[in-house]
Amino acid sequence: MSIIHSIFGGLVSSSSANASLYPLQTPDSSGALFDIGKYRGKVVLIVNTASKCGFTKQYDALEELHKTYGDKGLVVLGFPSNDFGGQEPGSDAEIESFCRINHGVSFDLLPKAPVKGADKQPVFAALTTRGPRDLQGEIRWNFEKFLLDREGRLVGRWRSYVHPGWGVFERAVRRVLKG
Q1: What is the CA radius of gyration of the chain?
Q2: Catalytic residue numbers?
Q3: What is the pLDDT of residue 11?
């Protein structure tokens, strides 16, 4: 497997040795299971988010990626969490309202849930423990980004400080979209 590293995270090329993480499921706001596997055939960008964080302005760039590449197969999913510094104290309705009004977010926001520790939701349990070894490990802060290829294989992970509007990030997304 060929691996491309940068100081920004990592991008791992797809290979059969990198198994699909599907099915990935998490409860939606009604308590029913939201199956991320329904996006098989699309490239999925999963981000743990918070509304009162220094990185919150990344919502704008995530929305721009969603608008720019959605018709090319990119799906952006936001997963609010209050795990880091209590920076997501609101209810699901408050979070959604904040994101829509202040950042124009139109991509899916899932219910607030833990993304680290023993109680982390199943999606983040899979993202942090399966896939390429160099992309495993606990989330360190809000706005970590995980990129799944069209088969649900984890092919990229970037820390909070990597802005989704940076050229290096967008080029990685385009590369995965091209297959």
Answers
A1: 15
A2: 102
A3: 54
